[in-house]
Amino acid sequence: MTDRHLLDIDRLDDEDIERILSRACALAAGATPSDVAATVANLFYEPSTRTRVSFELAAGRLGMRVVNIELERSSATKGETLEDTVATLEAMGVDAVVLRHPESFRVAQLAETGTGVRLVNAGDGSNAHPSQALLDAAVLRARSVDFARLKLAIVGDIRHSRVAGSGLRLWQRLGVPDIRLAGPASMLPSTPPVPAASLHDDLAGAVEGADAVMMLRVQHERMDRAGWPDRETYFADWGLKESDLAAAAPGCVVMHPGPINRGMEIDPAVADGERSLILEQVKMGVFTRMAIFEWLFG
Ligand code: CP
């Protein structure tokens, strides 16, 4: 049994957060990776490009052995439970499982069974995506952003976003004083989830004076729901365009965890423009996940 897991930001103490962020930045700046003698399995019950591949690349750079479970060819298709799958992997010598699951809190639930493998939450339902939050913070840390003065706008489907969930908990912990949450009413929480957050019903109000704007993916899988805006309406009201950024702080950067819907939540000119940190986030994802593995086995 182990209690060393990455479940969410609120399960990390300040020292853990600082260690992961500073190590991710050091690795990005060329520090020598540690050797981690461990085997990790990627177990994804939902699709992923960035998270799965970057955990695999991170493990490889640390000399870890990686097993990618192809879910559609695994015994999960025969009805094997998650608990049994993980116990089976543990019996074969797997030390850690990077787990993405559609149910909120499913990774924490598995940790409570007392599994002997170290669990990394790679996204659970609409609850948490801690490695994404950490890599986003590492990107700004690497650019010497002063979190204590940061004005951050987060725009889109805040209510259902696990990226926003973990991000908000982390930005609050890092002392960000001004977090503007903006989106259609159906995508906003009813009250600000953390003390530093405020709710905005228009994009302009959220972006005004912001140092960083984080756009969130509109989830097409939900778009057929009654009351959800169509693509054109959403882009007109909430899609980030160059013109929206005129009122932002000079040097304002644009972030997005990906995958992006071009022409829906973000204009391609902004996604590919000079303010965009989208690919920098992807790159820092590998270094942050290396830092997470070093912490997990440190
Ligand atoms: N940001 C993110 O989680 O992307 P993937 O779904 O591609 O892993």
- Relative helix content: 25-40%
Q: What is the strand tally?
A: 9
| C-alpha end-to-end distance | 16 Å
- What is the CATH T-level topology of the largest domain? Rossmann fold
Mind telling me the CATH class of the largest domain? Alpha Beta
Superfamily at the CATH H level of the largest domain? Aspartate/ornithine carbamoyltransferase
Query: What structural category characterises the helix and strand content?
Result: alpha/beta
Give the overall shape, derived from the CA principal axes: globular
CATH architecture of the largest domain: 3-Layer(aba) Sandwich
Give structural notes:
The chain is an alpha/beta fold and 298 residues long. The chain folds into 2 domains: 9-130 and 283-296, Aspartate/ornithine carbamoyltransferase (Rossmann fold), CATH 3.40.50; 132-277, 3-Layer(aba) Sandwich (Rossmann fold). The chain has helices spanning 14-28, 50-61, 82-91, 106-112, 130-142, 162-173, 203-207, 231-238, 268-271, 278-296, and strands spanning 39-44, 65-68, 96-101, 118-124, 151-155, 178-182, 197-200, 212-215, 253-255. Helix 6 links the parallel strand 5 and strand 6 (178-182). The radius of gyration is 19 Å and the shape is globular. Residues 48-51, 123, 132, 257-259 line the site of phosphoric acid mono(formamide)ester.
Key features of this structure:
298 residues; alpha/beta; Rossmann fold; 2 domains; 5-stranded parallel sheet; 4-stranded parallel sheet; 10 helices; 9 strands; globular; binds phosphoric acid mono(formamide)ester
